[in-house]
Amino acid sequence: MHRPMNRGAESAATRPDGQRLPMKKDLLAMEGTGPSAFFSWRSRIGPELQKMHGPVAKFANCPSLMADRYEAPAVVSEDYAPAGVQLTAAHRAILMLDALKMRNRVVKELKDKEVTLYGALQTEISDTSWSIIKGHEDFQVAVDRPDLLWTYNVRTHVTEKKVHDAHSRPCLLSTPPSHHDS
């Protein structure tokens, strides 16, 4: 379930050990540096998010801008029928059931981690940037999906910035704004 969080400029996320993370920075306020502001922000929060949330947050700490959703590894035959080991069908069935139970536990943990990562990421986004991200046409599908929140953050602040930034929209006109004087 999505719960709104306090995203005030004075707030900072807290690590599991109780230490506060560095204060967030408004990506739009750092607009003068262009996309490099995003990369500076990511280099500050990415390692900490991945440390706190594990592989679910890998997208925040990798060189790519793409955010792929982390999926639990599938159960493969090597998990329940190791090579070179003779097992009865009953033993293989027991090992397969154990492997499936373990994977299901991991899947449940991943869902919980996605929700907490979404909240942690949300606390690192300023109110100004949050309003821009919420304005993305596909934002509603991003609820409790940190990978999609990351994607819309990238789109609104780096790759498609001019589309979402009201101050940049005149750049999209086919003729310069000075030609539209009445």
Alpha plus pi helix count: 6
The total tally of domains equals 1
Q: Helicity level, as a percent range?
A: 40-55%
Q: Would you count the extended β strands for me?
A: 0
Q: Element order, helices and strands? A: HHHHHH
User: Rough shape?
Assistant: elongated
Strand content: under 5%
What ranges have pLDDT less than 50 throughout 5 or more consecutive residues? 1-12, 28-33, 163-182
**Structural class, judged by helices and strands?**
mainly alpha
Mean pLDDT: 74
Radius of gyration from the CA trace? Answer: 22 Å
First and last CA, distance: 51 Å
Instruction: Outline the biggest β-sheet.
Output: none
What does this molecule look like?
This protein is an all-alpha fold. It has six helices and no strands. The chain has helices at residues 35-53, 77-80, 89-123, 127-134, 146-159, 161-164. Helix 3 crosses helix 5 (146-159) and helix 4 (127-134) packs across helix 5. The N and C termini lie far apart (51 Å).
Short account of what is shown:
The chain is mostly helical and 182 residues long. Helix content is 46%, strand content 0%.
